[in-house]
Amino acid sequence: MNDITSENYSFVDSQQIEQQGDDAEEFTEIRIHGDHGWNGVQFKFGKVGVSEPINDTDEHAKLSFDFHVTNLETYNAYNLERDPGFQQYVGDILVHIIESAFAEGEYRIGSNRDDNSEESASQ
C-alpha cells in the first residue's frame, strides 16, 4: 500500500463542480495531488462495500468500490478507470479516508435515500 496522507488528495467544494443534474451534489469529488501523472485528476466514489474474511487464514476484510473519473474526456477517463495502478491508488485513498474518519469519530454508516435519515455509528 502506498503511504497516502491528506496531502495526496483534497475534497472538491461542491460549488466548484458544474451542476450536472440531480446527482451533482450527492457525492463529493476528490482531487488527487502529487508529483505524478495523476495530479489534478478528480473522481468520485459510487458504491463502497466491505466483506469479512472468508476463512481464518485471511487477516483483512475485503474492500470493494466503484469510482468514476469526472474531469477528463470520456476516452481518457475510461482508460484511467481501468488502469490497475490507478485503481490501487484510488483504493489507498479510500482506505485513508475511512481510517481518518474512524480516528476522528466523524463517520456515518447507512443512509436511507427515501427519507434522508441516517444512522451514525459515532453517536
Comma- or semicolon-separated keywords:
123 residues; alpha+beta; four-stranded antiparallel sheet; 2 helices; 24% helix; disordered C terminus
Number of domains: 1
| Proportion in β-strands | 15-25%
Shape call = globular
Main β sheet profile: 4 strands, antiparallel
| Termini Cα gap | 31 Å
Any low-confidence stretches, pLDDT <50, length ≥5?
Answer: 112-123
Side-by-side strand order of the widest sheet? 1-2-3-4
Radius of gyration: 16 Å
By secondary-structure content and strand pairing, the structural class works out as: alpha+beta
* N-to-C series of helices and strands: EEEEHH
Oligomer: single chain
Count of alpha/pi helices:
2
Provide the residue-averaged pLDDT: 81
In total, the number of strands is 4
Helix content: 10-25%
Description:
This protein has 123 residues and is an alpha+beta fold. The protein has one domain (6-53, 61-104). It has 2 helices and 4 strands. The protein has helices at 74-81, 84-104; strands at 9-11, 30-32, 42-51, 62-69. Strands 1-2-3-4 form a 4-stranded antiparallel sheet.
